[in-house]
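Hello again, I could really use a second opinion on something today. I owe you a coffee for this, so here goes:
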Amino acid sequence: MSDIQNDEDISTLVHSFYAKVEEDERLGPIFNEAANVDWDEHLPKMVDFWSKMIFQTKRYKGRPFREHLPLPIERDDFGRWVGLFTDTVDEHFEGNRADYAKELAINIANSFSTRMAMDGKFDQNSED
């Protein structure tokens, strides 16, 4: 296995990952029903997003947090998302950029979870 080297690799990662998300018993309904994601439109944006994150390209322009705020996301969903992402990276790649991609996913999930909690999205009395 090789490391993530180019946008073709990013595309492989994104398409493989979101195929898992789409089929996941918990995350699938959030993306497919609540968000009503148009996958043909969403996947190229996610390739641009991860290319920006990993290779510092300038193609992605957006504010992903705001788009996720109205969705029926629970705190535990972030761990599930990270798990699927990490598994997908590990299935296809190994190396410094692969490790970096996994760290980025963890940081994104932690940031979104923290911000949603601060916005009152999660029950403050629920256990972590």
Remarks:
- The chain has six helices and no strands.
